[in-house]
């Protein structure tokens, strides 16, 4: 089980805790709703003026220069989102004075913004995970192409899974990129791109786990293994994006794929007696412990660090160790094949 593949599943499976839905205790609060309604009508909350609300009355049938700037639309810094944010901060301040615990608003904990970053710590840690995957993939690329021996005639690598791991690296970087964007600005487009990228990585990772643990080398056999899973994952992504973003169903799909990969890698490491099996087991069990951070959910400390952010932090060293295992596997297979060729 890889840190990117299994933990990116958690990104999807448990990330739905933070999805915007109008069914939380905070947004059901009558005082909060009254604050948001008044803010949208007046463009102010106490001494705070919401400049984006000035565009609401002029955007319809108005001149082009009165329209909201495109960069404001991209950031989604509109009247409603700002009113919700400042009303949430106001209500949480009032609740804190009454000795009450934080509650969720529209399915998310009350995070404090830092400029345009809605969840700054999670966004920064997602970016760090992206960097770790880039570093791991680049070191793997240099290893198999420039440090390990190449086949004399074809000049290709001895390692049979080189191309598959390259694709995995690119999908991992893509998934963490959209994770960083989603935690920066959470709206419909970034939500779908984040979840779709994570599911795509998870599905591909499950295929890769099957091919490596069953030692499938023949191209025709690889297609037979991959085709049904690829078809299912593609259909699932299309369903989420164009029919219904069903969080419950998506969670079930991701958990099944995650458990399957976890069992595959853990059992294979023991049966194969791989020389780097302890690295693999560390990633598997380390990821299992990190999963507890997602299960044990709690409000953000001082409005910034919650369980999800800590989970992102835990994936960083696991990512480094996982790519270390991949490189060790490449060295092991290359040495074995060269020995057989002699």
TrEMBL record:
<dbReference type="GO" id="GO:0006506">
    <property type="term" value="P:GPI anchor biosynthetic process"/>
</dbReference>
<feature type="transmembrane region" description="Helical">
    <location>
        <begin position="158"/>
        <end position="181"/>
    </location>
</feature>
<dbReference type="GO" id="GO:0005789">
    <property type="term" value="C:endoplasmic reticulum membrane"/>
</dbReference>
<keyword id="KW-1133">Transmembrane helix</keyword>
<comment type="function">
    <text>Involved in the lipid remodeling steps of GPI-anchor maturation.</text>
</comment>
<keyword id="KW-0472">Membrane</keyword>
<feature type="transmembrane region" description="Helical">
    <location>
        <begin position="223"/>
        <end position="243"/>
    </location>
</feature>
<feature type="transmembrane region" description="Helical">
    <location>
        <begin position="278"/>
        <end position="296"/>
    </location>
</feature>
<keyword id="KW-0812">Transmembrane</keyword>
<feature type="transmembrane region" description="Helical">
    <location>
        <begin position="193"/>
        <end position="211"/>
    </location>
</feature>
<comment type="similarity">
    <text>Belongs to the PGAP3 family.</text>
</comment>
<dbReference type="GO" id="GO:0016788">
    <property type="term" value="F:hydrolase activity, acting on ester bonds"/>
</dbReference>
<feature type="transmembrane region" description="Helical">
    <location>
        <begin position="308"/>
        <end position="326"/>
    </location>
</feature>
<feature type="signal peptide">
    <location>
        <begin position="1"/>
        <end position="23"/>
    </location>
</feature>
<protein>
    <recommendedName>
        <fullName>Post-GPI attachment to proteins factor 3</fullName>
    </recommendedName>
</protein>
<dbReference type="Pfam" id="PF04080">
    <property type="entry name" value="Per1"/>
</dbReference>
<keyword id="KW-0333">Golgi apparatus</keyword>
<keyword id="KW-0732">Signal</keyword>
<feature type="transmembrane region" description="Helical">
    <location>
        <begin position="249"/>
        <end position="271"/>
    </location>
</feature>
<feature type="transmembrane region" description="Helical">
    <location>
        <begin position="123"/>
        <end position="146"/>
    </location>
</feature>
<dbReference type="InterPro" id="IPR007217">
    <property type="entry name" value="Per1-like"/>
</dbReference>
<keyword id="KW-0337">GPI-anchor biosynthesis</keyword>
<dbReference type="GO" id="GO:0000139">
    <property type="term" value="C:Golgi membrane"/>
</dbReference>
């Amino acid at each position: 089980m890889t840190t990117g593949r299994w933990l990116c599943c958690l990104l999807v499976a448990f990330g739905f805790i933070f999805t915007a839905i109008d069914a939380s205790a905070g947004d059901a609060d009558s005082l909060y709703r009254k604050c948001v309604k008044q803010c949208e009508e007046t463009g102010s909350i106490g001494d705070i003026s919401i400049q984006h609300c000035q565009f609401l009355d002029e955007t319809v049938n108005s001149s082009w220069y009165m329209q909201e700037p495109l960069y404001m639309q991209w950031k989604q810094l509109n009247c409603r989102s700002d009113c919700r944010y400042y009303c949430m901060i106001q209500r949480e301040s009032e609740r804190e004075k009454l000795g009450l615990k934080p509650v969720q608003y529209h399915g998310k904990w009350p995070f404090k913004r830092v400029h345009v970053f809605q969840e700054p710590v999670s966004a920064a840690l997602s970016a760090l995970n992206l960097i770790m995957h880039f570093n791991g993939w680049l070191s793997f690329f240099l290893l198999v192409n420039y440090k390990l021996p190449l086949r004399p005639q074809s000049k290709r690598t001895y390692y049979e899974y080189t191309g598959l791991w390259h694709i995995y690296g690119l999908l991992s970087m893509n998934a963490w990129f959209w994770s960083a964007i989603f935690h920066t600005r959470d709206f419909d487009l970034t939500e779908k791109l984040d979840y779709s990228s994570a599911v795509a990585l998870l599905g591909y990772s499950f295929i890769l786990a099957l091919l490596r643990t069953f030692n499938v080398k023949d191209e025709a056999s690889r297609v037979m293994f991959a085709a049904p899973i690829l078809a299912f994952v593609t259909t699932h992504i299309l369903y989420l994006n164009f029919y219904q973003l069903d969080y419950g169903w998506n969670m079930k799909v991701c958990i099944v794929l995650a458990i399957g990969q976890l069992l595959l890698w853990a059992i294979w490491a023991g049966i194969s007696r791989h020389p780097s099996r302890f690295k693999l087991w560390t990633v598997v069990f380390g990821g299992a412990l990190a999963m507890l951070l997602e299960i044990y959910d709690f409000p953000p400390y001082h409005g910034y660090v919650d369980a999800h952010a800590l989970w992102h932090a835990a994936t960083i060293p696991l990512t480094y160790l996982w790519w270390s295992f991949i490189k060790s596997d490449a060295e092991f297979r290359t040495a074995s094949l060269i020995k057989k060729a002699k």
